[in-house]
Amino acid sequence: MTHSPAQHAATGSLFDQLGGETAVAAVVDLFYGRVLADEALAGHFTGVDIDRLKRHQRRFIGQALGATRPYSGRSMRHAHRHLGITDADFDRVVAHLAASLAEAGVDEATIGTIAGKLAPLRADIVTR
């Protein structure tokens, strides 16, 4: 899954360059392994159907990276408004995603690009 910025410029969407659905699913699995092991975040997932959440996350991240399959879940604001997520929580989640991408072999420049695509969601997700 390792790709250089030059490869990104020369080919299609980030979604395709990273390996499509299979690669995104692997990153999402790594990501939730990290998030659920993080005592500061795990409480947000008590009673949550993690398999269902992973499916939504795969579609959401896929769309953010340019997949053609649309994300049809709730808006980020609606899905997170009752969770009391703080800026620190958001930063921890982003760090876990970056670490998961790195573990999957994604280069730093691409991780930065992905983080940049997700950063605007802070306003919709952070409620405290």
UniProtKB/TrEMBL annotation:
<dbReference type="GO" id="GO:0005344">
    <property type="term" value="F:oxygen carrier activity"/>
</dbReference>
<keyword id="KW-0349">Heme</keyword>
<keyword id="KW-0408">Iron</keyword>
<feature type="binding site" description="distal binding residue">
    <location>
        <position position="56"/>
    </location>
    <ligand>
        <name>heme</name>
    </ligand>
</feature>
<dbReference type="GO" id="GO:0019825">
    <property type="term" value="F:oxygen binding"/>
</dbReference>
<dbReference type="InterPro" id="IPR001486">
    <property type="entry name" value="Hemoglobin_trunc"/>
</dbReference>
<keyword id="KW-0561">Oxygen transport</keyword>
<dbReference type="Pfam" id="PF01152">
    <property type="entry name" value="Bac_globin"/>
</dbReference>
<protein>
    <recommendedName>
        <fullName>Group 1 truncated hemoglobin</fullName>
    </recommendedName>
</protein>
<feature type="binding site" description="proximal binding residue">
    <location>
        <position position="80"/>
    </location>
    <ligand>
        <name>heme</name>
    </ligand>
</feature>
<dbReference type="InterPro" id="IPR012292">
    <property type="entry name" value="Globin/Proto"/>
</dbReference>
<keyword id="KW-0813">Transport</keyword>
<dbReference type="InterPro" id="IPR009050">
    <property type="entry name" value="Globin-like_sf"/>
</dbReference>
<dbReference type="GO" id="GO:0020037">
    <property type="term" value="F:heme binding"/>
</dbReference>
<dbReference type="InterPro" id="IPR016339">
    <property type="entry name" value="Hemoglobin_trunc_I"/>
</dbReference>
<feature type="binding site" description="distal binding residue">
    <location>
        <position position="80"/>
    </location>
    <ligand>
        <name>heme</name>
    </ligand>
</feature>
<keyword id="KW-0479">Metal-binding</keyword>
<dbReference type="GO" id="GO:0046872">
    <property type="term" value="F:metal ion binding"/>
</dbReference>
<comment type="similarity">
    <text>Belongs to the truncated hemoglobin family. Group I subfamily.</text>
</comment>
